[in-house]
Amino acid sequence: MIADSGAVESLFEHYRKMVSTDDAAATLVLAHANLGRTPIPEAEILTTTEVAHQLNVSTKTVQNLCRDGSLRCLRVGRTFRVKPEWVQDCIKNTGRCRPSNLDRHR
């Protein structure tokens, strides 16, 4: 049972060695969890809607930040997932995620 983000990252790194992209590794981690082998704490991986609420912006803005690389994310199928620390990194390091630089069309 995985109880912390370090264990999730370890599982991700394990799968990353087996596949060619981060997206594929993330998909395998989630599939692993869905098989009941590894429950991943929901608080560890945020949806774009959850990130949008944190930043007080639209979901579309968060998706655009993910697409242009300003916000680090994992692509799972057609969706993006974001770790809470990646949101903080984006705010601190790029400036693109600062509230003053984002649209307010919620």
Describe this structure as you would to a colleague.
It is a single chain. By secondary structure, the protein is mostly helical. The protein folds into two domains: 44 residues; 62 residues. It has a three-stranded antiparallel β-sheet with strand order 1-3-2. A hairpin with a 2-residue loop joins β2 and β3. α1 packs across α2 and α3 crosses α4. The longest helix has 13 residues. The chain is elongated and about 35 Å long. The protein starts with a helix and ends in a 12-residue tail after the last helix. The mean pLDDT is 77.
Annotate the secondary structure layout.
Layout: H1 5-16, H2 22-34, E1 46-47, H3 48-55, H4 59-67, E2 74-76, E3 79-82, H5 84-94
Antiparallel strand pairs: 1-3, 2-3
Helix pairs in contact: 1-2, 3-4
**Uncertain runs with pLDDT below 50, 5 residues or more?**
none
Order of strands in the sheet with most strands: 1-3-2
Mean pLDDT across residues:
77
Give the fraction of residues assigned to helices.
40-55%
Number of DSSP strand runs: 3
- Structural class of the secondary elements? mainly alpha
Largest sheet: 3 strands, antiparallel
In DSSP terms (H or I, runs of 4 or more residues), the helix count works out at 5
